[in-house]
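hey
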């Protein structure tokens, strides 16, 4: 009688995931990223990704919010709905949700035990592995529909092995230029790589040559361009932004297009969008960290995202009387961000414990008035006191979220606006 090996612990699984190479750490492969590795892995397993009806969402900004809105609508309408997004904020299992609930620890352990032999035969990056985990989990649980967010770009993103029921490109901006190109047209071409023959697609507020590139790509491969519909009545979400109306219309158009396969009623649509955070588990997007105080976190980390955030906030707050606490990756810094930070009366900088983190001197090249912040009890209390009457915004990187949560004692807080 053979002795059974001990079951992996969740801590061992976590350690294994953390040891996986990140995209920024894989050298030449990062410069020439491709789908071959994940395709080979899935070929070895029978490719469980083919069994999942999915909506595929790309875009420089807004894709995570649109994904969460779609997941919220389908969950509220009674469909078992998978949601794969990145990055996670405090726990890797946040990337894999069904009906708003993160993957249980036991399921993640099951994946590593079931796939142990196959994993030993392949070399995957962290994002490739989490993408495989998402497809495995959604297939295992038999979701009715999955909302899949790209990680980087589109054409050669690990998620682009699927043939979805609909493709979405929310926006095009200058980000990840090392991998996607140095012009708006090159970046648009990479994002347009998610379009598929005979599959409907829709875009957000994308204009000029970027929109032209996407349209031409769609025509060349025989994808079906959808005209964006306008939701007929006024509707507010709990994830407000300057793009709120566009996002609502995108979600409305997609659900209308797919209504034969996934019928839903307007009451559920409205309820879902008024409570996206509850139905999808969304965090880190203009999230209020305390029910009484004006403490907010938003993971905006590029020029377009910060400008959109500023345009929304200045309608509600006197930013010259407000404070912003920022932590950023060095490779995200841009002189074009200066105007955003100049709107605030006080700018504090925090250096993350990350290899790519900017230092104060780096950040001061775009915001000379910034001062270093150290999270002593006095500083934290000062920020809390400021937020009783003024806005205190934490922003710059999603990696900052767990740090801020610890400062504010809000790991369990999911309070929305």
């Amino acid at each position: 009688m053979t002795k059974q090996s001990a079951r992996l612990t969740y801590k061992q699984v976590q350690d294994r995931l953390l040891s996986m190479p990140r995209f920024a750490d894989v050298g030449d492969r990062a410069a020439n990223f491709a789908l071959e590795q994940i395709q080979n892995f899935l070929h070895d397993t029978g490719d469980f990704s083919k069994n999942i009806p999915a909506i595929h969402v790309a875009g420089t900004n807004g894709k995570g919010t649109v994904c969460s809105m779609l997941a919220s609508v389908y969950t509220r309408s009674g469909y078992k709905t998978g949601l794969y997004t990145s990055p996670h904020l405090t726990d890797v299992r946040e990337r894999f949700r069904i009906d708003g609930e993160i993957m249980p620890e036991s399921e993640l352990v099951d994946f590593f035990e079931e796939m142990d032999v196959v994993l030993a035969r392949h070399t995957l990056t962290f994002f490739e592995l989490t993408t495989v985990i998402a497809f495995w989990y959604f297939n295992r649980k038999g979701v009715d529909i999955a909302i899949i967010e790209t990680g980087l770009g589109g054409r050669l993103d690990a998620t682009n092995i699927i043939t979805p029921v609909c493709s979405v490109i929310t926006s095009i901006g200058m980000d990840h230029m090392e991998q996607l190109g140095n012009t708006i047209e090159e970046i648009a071409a990479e994002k347009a790589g998610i379009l598929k023959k005979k599959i409907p697609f829709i875009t957000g507020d994308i204009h000029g040559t970027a929109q032209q590139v996407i349209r031409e790509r769609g025509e060349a491969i025989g994808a079906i361009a959808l005209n964006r519909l306008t939701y007929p009545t006024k509707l507010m979400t709990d994830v407000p932004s300057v793009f709120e109306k566009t996002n609502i219309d995108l979600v409305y158009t997609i659900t209308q297009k797919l209504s034969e396969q996934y019928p839903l009623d307007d009451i559920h649509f409205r309820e879902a969008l008024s409570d996206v955070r509850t139905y999808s588990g969304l965090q880190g997007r203009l999230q209020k960290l305390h029910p009484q105080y004006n403490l907010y976190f938003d993971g905006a980390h590029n020029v377009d995202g910060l400008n959109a955030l500023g345009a929304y906030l200045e309608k509600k707050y006197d930013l010259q009387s407000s404070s912003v606490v920022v932590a950023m990756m060095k490779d995200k810094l841009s002189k074009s961000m200066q105007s955003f930070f100049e709107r605030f009366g006080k700018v504090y900088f925090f250096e993350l414990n990350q290899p790519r983190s900017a230092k104060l001197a780096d950040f001061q090249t775009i915001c000379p008035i910034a001062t270093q912040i150290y999270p002593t009890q006095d500083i934290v209390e000062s920020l809390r006191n400021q937020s009783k009457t003024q806005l205190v915004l934490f922003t710059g990187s999603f990696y900052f979220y767990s740090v801020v949560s610890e400062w504010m004692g809000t790991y369990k807080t999911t309070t929305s606006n």
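The chain has 18 helices and 14 strands. The radius of gyration is 21 Å.
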